[in-house]
Amino acid sequence: MNELTDQAGDHWVPACGGTERPTRTRTGRTLLYMWNTTKGEHAYYDCERDIFLSDEEARAALAID
């Protein structure tokens, strides 16, 4: 995945200058840390479900307290 445009028209690219790679979490999900060049925000993208996670969902998926 090189870039993604969501329904709101925001432009998302992998974080860290495009070098971020998908990672498998302890909970079995494949997530990619993304950067929104339109809004200047980061978020985790669930590669299998094709959705962006809320901060709470990302913490749960990453098993972070």
Global mean pLDDT: 90
Name the helix and strand elements from N-terminus to C-terminus, one letter apiece.
EEEEEEH
How many domain modules? 1
Uncertain runs: none
Region (Disordered): 1-23
Topology:
Elements (H helix, E strand, L loop, with lengths): L3 E2 L5 E4 L8 E2 L5 E7 L4 E6 L4 E2 L2 H7 L4
Antiparallel strand pairs: 1-2, 2-4, 3-4, 4-5, 5-6
Structure, explained:
The chain is mainly β and 65 residues long. The protein has one domain (12-62). Helices cover 11% and strands 35% of the residues. The chain contains 1 helix and 6 strands; from the N terminus they run ββββββα. It has one helix at residues 55-61, and strands at 4-5, 11-14, 23-24, 30-36, 41-46, 51-52. Strands 1, 2, 3, 4, 5 and 6 form a 6-stranded antiparallel β-sheet that branches. β5 and β6 (51-52) form a beta hairpin. The longest helix is centred in the last third of the chain and has 7 residues, at 55-61. The termini are far apart. Residues 1-23 are annotated as: Disordered.
